[in-house]
Fold this sequence. Notes:
With 224 residues, this protein is mostly helical. It has helices at 2-41, 48-61, 64-69, 85-120, 133-136, 138-160, 164-170, 201-223, and strands at residues 123-124, 130-131.
Amino acid sequence: MTRFWSKLLVKIEDWITILAAIAIAAMMVITTTDVIARRTFDIHVKGSYEFVMLLFVYVIFFGLAYCQRQDSHITVGILYDRLTRKARRSIEGAVLVISFVLFALITWYSALSACFNLQAGDTILGAMPVLTWPSRMGVPVGTGLLSLRLLVQIVRLVMRGELYEERCWGHEHDVGDSPYHGSGRSAASDENANRHSPSRSWYHRSRHDKRRRTDSEHGRHKAL
């Protein structure tokens, strides 16, 4: 059952990210059409500015959960990557809990705001009246899915000791299984987990490659 809900959440995140891509395409088509109409026929496409502005909400919020699942949000790991795995688990746990509470509150209050605007029939005053509630509903949908993804990552961190960046780097798609599922091991007990941790991979790969190049050049000069 847990695996079913995990797969379902992944499917929803994937489909809603596709909707964000469709919103980007729609913005491009509307803007291009408006520019061509202005240059060629000296006319303005009514509502183009308003629709593009409202579509931005889907572009921004619909991809949040997917990016969190894929560890694609911008991060700075100069200090974090050099910590022990135990320290990283503590820091990541605190960040996930704070983020979950924050985005759960955003979800609740943005949903209330969207419902209020739906009842009031709120519109943008421009070249043509455009209802705002469909765009406003994109905020609680996006942040709600992000809250669920954060909750899943909190549960996995507490129950399995799993850092979400390890799952992201080790598996292309999240299918609801731990990378150690059924093996009799856990990430916390694996003696190689810290050495092979994907969150440390960039830092250690760069250092290793630099050291290897230096040793190679030193050997070449010595041979000469």
